[in-house]
């Protein structure tokens, strides 16, 4: 009897052990047989099978119970791999002698390539924002007859009341500014006939020349009163009747700097382009350029006469309230924003990209000359950390090398066709 009791006791122990083992096995099996789609969502077994392969696979499985974790994976992958979207709505307010024609050539090429709606002048080389749509001179929008333009890049004074009604509200605003001294020297090189071969110091001592009115194309400049005095402020919409009021200038500068998403500095042109690339999600190919109207200190037609730079005394005179202090204050305001508010310019990686772009642009300039001359059919600039390979085809090089007059005409006729006064364009730019 004792032996039977002992055997029964052992049997009970074995049965209990078996039940425990069976229970453990069922739990293990539940994990092992966990649906593969949910394993991907949770990451179960990932270190063995690398089952988290794609966002599509995660989206294919799962249930409401697992949605929060699945959503976490989706958001993480979106953040890692979702490409940014190119900005295709923008306004450039051109300020003369700041590199704006070079920037115009870049933006015009982008508009034509992407077939954007653009606001253009109907006559001449400048867009008169004081006129009605379709006036000659005046402005219009095309191709077609859309109510709003995506872009504006031709010469036009800043006029918020008009632009807010005809430009898409999502548009980014761009302008360019330059320190007053180098601006004056550049302007005198560009308009030697208007300075009577004076030096910059001599010009400042001659009020009749320095404050001279814009005599040519009087219907084209829509409120731009003078050639050399406060030119940059005027292009950005400042009321010239307040030219003697420094407080009014300060208030307007505070207002106008808040209206622009990017203020280009002429002395940091390439770096400003990289700022634009990062904000607009563009490519290095989009930014390639051939400098327009950049000259030395030699006057056209008189190579033996060198335009002397401003003396220190001349600079002090230029920066008086009655001369171009307002333009200098404008430059300094944008300059502070550029260096203080753009965090990426403090990053060495940013300047490495600037240097790489300058190398790429120099190669494009040299090799496009060979492509245009027919010496080579194609040249590929290798890709780098910031850019995919760029293929210099005859079409790209033709667009890249186009002079400003041809490009201005091409953009206007692309937009409004026969509504653009071609003869007036030739006459307006022949000076």
UniProtKB/TrEMBL annotation:
The cellular component terms of Gene Ontology attached to this UniProt record, alphabetical and capped at eight, are: Golgi membrane
Q: Which family does it belong to?
A: Belongs to the galactose-3-O-sulfotransferase family.
Keyword Transmembrane helix assigned: yes
Keyword list, A-Z: Glycoprotein, Golgi apparatus, Membrane, Signal-anchor, Transferase, Transmembrane, Transmembrane helix
As for membrane topology, the entry says: Single-pass type II membrane protein
What taxonomic classification does the UniProt entry list for its organism? Eukaryota, Metazoa, Spiralia, Lophotrochozoa, Bryozoa
The record's listing under SUPFAM superfamilies reads: P-loop containing nucleoside triphosphate hydrolases
Query: By its UniProt entry, which InterPro entries does this protein fall under?
Result: Gal-3-0_sulfotransfrase, P-loop_NTPase
Compartments where located: Golgi apparatus membrane
Transmembrane intervals:
7-26
- GO biological process: any one? glycolipid biosynthetic process
- Molecular-function GO term, any one: galactosylceramide sulfotransferase activity
Q: What is this protein called?
A: GAL3ST1
């Amino acid at each position: 009897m004792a032996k039977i009791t002992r055997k029964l006791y052992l049997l009970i122990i074995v049965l209990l052990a078996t039940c425990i083992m069976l229970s453990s096995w069922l739990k293990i099996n539940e994990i092992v047989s966990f649906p593969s789609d949910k394993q991907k969502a949770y990451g179960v077994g990932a270190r063995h099978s690398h089952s988290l392969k794609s966002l599509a696979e995660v989206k294919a499985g799962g249930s409401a119970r697992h949605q929060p974790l699945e959503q976490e994976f989706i958001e993480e992958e979106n953040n890692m791999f979702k490409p940014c979207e190119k900005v295709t709505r923008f306004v450039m307010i051109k300020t003369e002698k700041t590199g704006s024609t070079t920037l115009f050539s870049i933006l015009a090429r982008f508009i034509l390539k992407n077939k954007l709606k653009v606001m253009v002048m109907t006559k001449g080389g400048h867009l008169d924002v004081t006129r009605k749509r379709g006036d000659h001179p005046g402005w219009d929008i095309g191709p077609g007859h859309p109510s709003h333009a995506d872009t504006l890049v031709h010469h036009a004074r800043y006029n918020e009341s008009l632009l807010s009604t005809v430009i898409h509200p999502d548009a980014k605003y761009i302008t360019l500014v330059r320190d007053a001294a180098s601006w004056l020297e550049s302007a005198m090189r560009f308009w030697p006939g208007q300075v009577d071969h004076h030096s910059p110091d001599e010009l400042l001592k001659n009020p009749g020349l320095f404050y001279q009115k814009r005599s040519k194309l009087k219907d084209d400049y829509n409120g731009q009163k003078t050639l050399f005095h406060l030119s940059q402020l005027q292009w950005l919409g400042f009321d010239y009747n307040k030219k003697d009021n420094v407080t009014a200038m300060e208030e307007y500068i505070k207002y106008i700097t808040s209206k622009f998403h990017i203020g280009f500095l002429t002395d940091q042109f390439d770096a400003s382009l990289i700022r634009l690339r990062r904000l607009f999600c563009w490519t290095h190919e989009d930014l390639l350029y051939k400098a327009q109207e950049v000259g030395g200190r030699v006057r056209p037609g008189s190579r033996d006469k060198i335009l002397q730079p401003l003396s220190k005394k001349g600079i002090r005179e230029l920066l008086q309230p009655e001369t171009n202090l307002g333009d200098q204050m404008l430059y300094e305001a944008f300059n502070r924003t550029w260096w203080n508010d753009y965090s990426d310019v403090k990053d060495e990686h940013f300047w490495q990209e600037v240097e790489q772009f300058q190398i790429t642009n120099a190669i494009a300039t040299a090799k496009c000359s060979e492509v245009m001359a027919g010496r080579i059919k194609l040249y590929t600039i290798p890709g780098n950390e910031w850019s995919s390979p760029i293929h210099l085809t005859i079409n790209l090089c033709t667009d890249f090398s186009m002079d400003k007059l041809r490009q201005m005409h091409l953009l206007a006729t692309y937009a409004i066709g026969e509504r653009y006064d071609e003869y007036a364009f030739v006459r307006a730019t022949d000076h």
